[in-house]
Amino acid sequence: MTQAEEAGRKPARVVVADDQTVVREGIVMLLGLLPGIEVVGAAGDGNEAVALVAELAPDVVLMDLRMPRCDGVEATRRIRTEHPGTQVVVLTTYADDESLFPALRAGARGYLTKDAGGDEIVRAVESVLSGDAGLSPSIQRRLLERLSEPAPEPALLPEAPDGLTARETEVLLLIAEGLSNQEIARKLHVSTATVKTHINNLFAKTGLKDRAQAVRYAYGKGLVRPPAD
């Protein structure tokens, strides 16, 4: 018997977000067989997930990460900001640092990989609704490993011009190094959508039009020094 059944609670109302139709329908079918869970909607990308949360006010979203238009990290951030009564449990194929930590920073309270069984999904949903974290054992081990690693020395950033924030300045410096949006996202452990937001903001503040102008701007403001001969 689940905790929800023991406590006599109503089933948890769940939205499933996954861009692969076969996977999404399979998850919905599995959840329909699990005690204590009622699937109230399914979304094919992050934008649809946010819209369904606004419409249905579910208790939990089971969120994939790699989706078109709006990825799971950005959708999680929007849901937790705009609809704090809905919790997010990531259900994804990926357990690497570039996937795990941005999702947790965005507000996900649970993180499972797609090899999780039905009982594990139920436990994760019940955990996040009780105010706890719903993490698979492998994810818990990875977090403990990461916490036990020595913290890197903080990088000293040059003083930011034109009202740029520290993060916008950091993104500007990485653009000047020639990194793509995807590479910047991996380096900063954020989503590509977040990187694009930072770039749009710094372009608006500085009047820049493209990345080439951004590189010239960084050198012109003394944020980057030309390599020595």
TrEMBL record:
The modification 4-aspartylphosphate is found at D64. CDD domains: LuxR_C_like, REC_NarL-like. Residues 13-129 form the Response regulatory domain. Residues 157-222 form the HTH luxR-type domain. Keywords: DNA-binding, Phosphoprotein, Transcription, Transcription regulation. This is Response regulator. SUPFAM superfamilies: CheY-like. It comes from Streptomyces lutosisoli.
